[in-house]
Amino acid sequence: GDLQWDLRGLKRERPQRDYTVARDGWLFYLNVCGDTVRVPKVCSEKYGEGVLRSPGYQTLSKDGETACYYMGNVNTGVWGLLDESRPEEGLKLTYSSGTKCDARTGRSLEYHFVCDPRKSDSLPTTVAGECRFMVIWETSLACPLGTHRAPGYAFWGLGLVVAYCKLQTLNPTAIISKPS
Mainly localized where (predicted)? Predict the structure, then answer.
């Protein structure tokens, strides 16, 4: 049969606050399957009305120095598996086309949703990388629906990966179908 994931539970909406992760003086504002709930203050002060919306921001506000970078564009979202041969391990979601790091490369944001059946109310823990940012997120929502078991059981080979992040209907559901 099909394997399905439902990540709606991770999306933040008003009046909730965005997810934040601090690293080396930087503060990252994050959301899943949508732009951040709010534009960080440092970004709205820097760009005013021209501030772009993004599913993630990399910000700095320290010792009079400020910075705000977009980590991707919500319309570029691409789903995949963490491990093609073991879909039960979890999913990844990548947003690209963020603020340029250099002439050729734009920032990107790649969520690694790691299946952990024990973590029903979890937060992103780690932001790694300098231009291609990887966010590690252990959550029960990364386990395929209906499995409720720890990773490590056998699966058939996969053909097609189809995933949804329907912003209009607020229904981000990732579906991986068995080849017919």
Answer: membrane
Q: What is the pLDDT of residue 172?
A: 39
Residues 6+ apart with CB under 8 A from 76: 94, 95, 96, 97
Closest CA to 116 of 135, 137, 86: 137
Architecture of the 75-156 domain: Distorted Sandwich (2.70)
Would you call 171 helix, strand, or coil by DSSP? Answer: strand
- The gap between the terminal CA atoms of the chain, to the nearest Å, is 10
- In the chain, which stretches have pLDDT less than 70? 1-2, 146-180
Q: Residue 92: which residues within 8 A CB-CB, separation 6 or more?
A: 79, 80, 81, 82, 110, 111, 112, 113
CA triplet 151, 137, 60: central angle to 5 degrees?
Answer: 165
DSSP 53: P
Q: What is the CA angle 34-176-170, rounded to 5?
A: 25
In Å, the largest CA–CA distance within the chain is 59
Q: Which amino acid is at 95?
A: Y
User: What is the reported pTM?
Assistant: 0.81
